[in-house]
TrEMBL record:
Compartment list: Secreted
Membrane-spanning intervals of the chain: 7-29
GO MF annotations in UniProt: N-acetylmuramoyl-L-alanine amidase activity
EC number(s) from the headed UniProt entry: 3.5.1.-
SMART domains, alphabetized: Ami_3, SH3b
Keywords in alphabetical order: Cell wall biogenesis/degradation, Hydrolase, Membrane, Secreted, Signal, Transmembrane, Transmembrane helix
Residue ranges occupied by any SH3b domain in the UniProt entry: 31-93
Organism: Lactiplantibacillus pentosus (Lactobacillus pentosus)
PANTHER family: CELL WALL AMIDASE LYTH-RELATED, N-ACETYLMURAMOYL-L-ALANINE AMIDASE
GO biological process terms held by the UniProt record: cell wall organization; peptidoglycan catabolic process
Protein's job: Probably involved in cell-wall metabolism.
Protein name: Probable cell wall amidase lytH
């Protein structure tokens, strides 16, 4: 009886191990994206034949496979459109692993911190952080879109967006980068200055943080480098993600720069340069 129990225990352990291995392989397959060329394929709004056809691709259309569900592929295609195609209509044998190497192929989520009832930090004269994060995000979005990027803002007006909803957008879109914009505040007025770029997941986001930090060093405010930061919007983010504190809003000198008309444009140029470096090194 003891031998029989030991035998079944070994069988159970083996089955569990095999299950874990299979699950890991499936996870890799699910997250492994590829770029393929297709022709005359229907694009549907869901993973099944019962879903409506929204578009049809032309010969030679390049699609970026973002995720898989059963026998269906969720893809990004011409002019940054999205939809589902049947996997049996796609020949993936000659596909290339989809590493985005330029901004024009990238999906980037920009997150203007705070908004609506959440004012964020205040300047010495009561100016709200939420106003300046949105101003910067819009300038960056305009710069990146001009370069061909697919850009999504977590908010594009003075409205409240919950913290968990922000990384959820990046996760859902399988974004190539997520950048959250903020302005720092010190316990005492006029005692701190500079820009800090935070990351949480070292394996996925440190390279992005370093690339962006290398370019913000050219901004009017001093760079304080990259640091680990336990912020929900980057902690709960499975995509390459950073949170940038672009100066101290309650420092008189920093705020003069932050509130200037040219600062958002300068930040946009720095972020564009940083992302260009980041994607080129993928």
């Amino acid at each position: 009886m003891q031998v029989l129990k030991q035998f079944w225990r070994q069988i159970t352990v083996t089955v569990i191990f095999i299950g874990l291995v299979i699950g890991f392989v499936i996870l890799l397959a699910t997250n492994n994206t590829a770029t393929v060329n297709i022709a005359n394929v229907n694009i549907r709004n869901g993973p099944g034949m019962s879903y409506a056809i929204e578009d049809t691709t032309a010969k030679g259309t390049k699609v970026h496979i973002m995720k898989r569900k059963n026998n269906w592929l969720y893809v990004r295609y011409a002019d940054h459109k999205f939809g589902w195609i049947a996997s049996w209509l796609v020949n993936e044998h000659n596909s290339q692993l989809a590493k985005t190497t330029k901004i024009s192929d990238a999906t980037i989520v920009l997150d203007p911190g705070h908004g609506g009832s959440d004012s964020g930090a205040l300047s010495n004269k009561g100016k709200m952080e939420k106003t300046y994060t949105l101003r910067v995000a819009k300038a960056v979005a305009k710069k990146l879109r001009a370069a061909g990027a697919h850009v999504v803002l977590t908010r594009d007006s003075d409205k409240y967006v919950g913290l968990s909803a922000r990384p959820a957008i990046a996760n859902k879109l399988h974004a190539d980068a997520f950048i959250s914009f903020h302005f720092d505040s010190s316990p005492e007025k006029n005692t701190a200055s500079g820009i800090t770029t935070y990351y949480y997941h070292k394996s996925t986001s440190l390279a992005l943080a370093k690339a962006l930090n290398s370019k913000v060093e050219g901004l009017p405010l001093p760079s304080k480098g990259t640091e680990f930061g336990d912020f929900l919007v980057i902690r709960d983010n499975s995509r390459p993600s950073v949170l940038m504190e672009l100066g101290y809003i309650n420092d008189k000198s920093d705020f003069k720069t932050i509130s200037s008309k040219k600062y958002p444009q300068e930040v946009a140029h720095a972020v564009y340069a940083g992302l260009s470096t980041y994607f080129a090194n993928q």
